[in-house]
Write a structure and sequence with these properties.
two-stranded antiparallel ribbon; 12 helices
Length: 373
């Protein structure tokens, strides 16, 4: 698990530098290394935290703490605390959120001269809390109230916070992970199907009556990047142009032409397109195989974990990395709508990278205590 993570991280930083050095030169007064240095700094912070977390017993997250407040004794865990802490910046986004494009979604919160995306923290906190909740109530998960209504109320609050930004792709990932964990936890699937169908109907109605028409436009133009090259499909067209230009073996490291201001967000959501241009079909398949190995090893750790709590934690973290990689690659290849989902370990973004490495640290903590033999 550690080896595959380090391979992905080193390859990701290398490709992020290649995709970003032209943009960095333009945006940072001729400094081509600014974005790469920033990413390596956050990678260093994340690696330190990853190793520290890997030596901490993950079961501390479910340890119950009791405090007396007003004559009453309150019981909570670090899982509850993680969820509450993650809600604070999400609420602060409502009045103080900023966008990285004019008129775009307000998903970022300014802090200490930089911006970070609170939804990355919330994803991690939800995995921790749902793992604890299912572990704690495993024998009651088939009951509708415990297994469905209570989790649904929490997810409704999360959906409301994500809708305000809006960050629908992030919400989709959270819902998939939550549904997977609830399924593993033994929730009654007949009830889930009924509620899920109702939720999808409500979501379709919300899209139809809301002002967020951009999402419908992205769905409409997903599979036809030639439909409106000058406007709505420009980014998708430039991405597939980069992938196609790479051919089988690519044009060579650093020789991409699309990164010279043709492909927007080349250092962020479209690093994979630049990688395919420079290393071709072979390089793109290698990255896909690396993520598949990560997912398989993560599920192996989950399957052999010491207890159900560790199994759920490992499954949730592995699913998050795998789903994000899958959706990002799908966007680059025009297989799914452009959703603004970053690629784990590859895309530029300090907060996301640090959180991902901390998650891997928790996964390694589960692995340390798993019955791997």
């Amino acid at each position: 698990m550690l080896v595959i993570t380090m391979v992905l991280l080193i390859l990701g930083i290398t490709m992020m530098f290649s995709a970003s050095h032209a943009l960095s030169y333009r945006d940072n007064d001729g400094d081509s290394y600014s974005y790469a240095v920033s990413q390596m700094t956050f990678a260093g912070i994340g690696l330190v935290l990853m190793f520290l977390v890997s030596f901490v017993d993950y079961r501390l997250l479910r340890k119950e703490l009791k405090i007396k407040l007003g004559g009453k004794e309150l019981c909570f865990t670090f899982s509850h605390l993680a969820l509450v802490v993650s809600f604070i910046p999400m609420l602060l986004i409502i009045p103080f959120g900023v966008s990285n494009t004019e008129g775009g979604p307000r998903r970022w919160l300014p802090m200490f001269g930089r911006t970070f995306q609170p939804s990355d923290v919330l994803k991690f906190a939800l995995i921790i809390f749902f793992s604890y909740y299912i572990w704690k109530n495993f024998k009651k998960m088939r009951y509708t109230y415990t297994g469905l209504i209570k989790p649904a109320l929490l997810l409704a609050v999360v959906a409301w916070l994500m809708w305000l930004q809006p960050h629908l792709s992030g919400l989709l990932i959270m819902l998939i992970i939550a549904a997977a964990l609830l399924f593993i936890g033994g929730v009654n699937m007949k009830t889930v199907i009924i509620v899920g169908a109702a939720a999808v109907t409500l979501l379709i109605l919300a899209f139809a009556t809301s002002e967020f028409t951009y999402f419908a436009d992205r769905i409409r133009y997903t599979f036809d990047p030639l439909a409106d090259i000058g406007n709505k499909t420009y980014q998708s067209y430039q991405a597939v142009l980069a992938i196609g230009s790479g051919g089988l073996w690519g044009v060579g490291f650093g020789n991409s032409s699309q990164k010279y201001y043709y492909l927007p967000d080349a250092e962020n959501d479209f690093v994979f397109a630049i990688l395919c241009e420079e290393f071709g079909f072979i390089g793109g398949m290698l990255v896909i195989i690396l993520f598949l190995i990560f997912v398989l090893r993560g599920f192996s750790v989950a399957r052999k974990s010491e207890d159900r709590f560790g199994m759920l934690l490992a499954t949730g973290i592995t699913l998050q990395v795998g789903i994000q990689a899958l959706l990002n690659i799908g966007v680059n290849c025009c297989c799914i709508p452009n959703t603004g989902i970053s690629m784990p370990f590859f895309s530029y973004g300090g907060t996301a990278l640090v959180i991902q490495l901390v998650e891997v640290g928790l996964l390694l903590s589960v692995s340390r205590r798993a019955k791997l033999n």
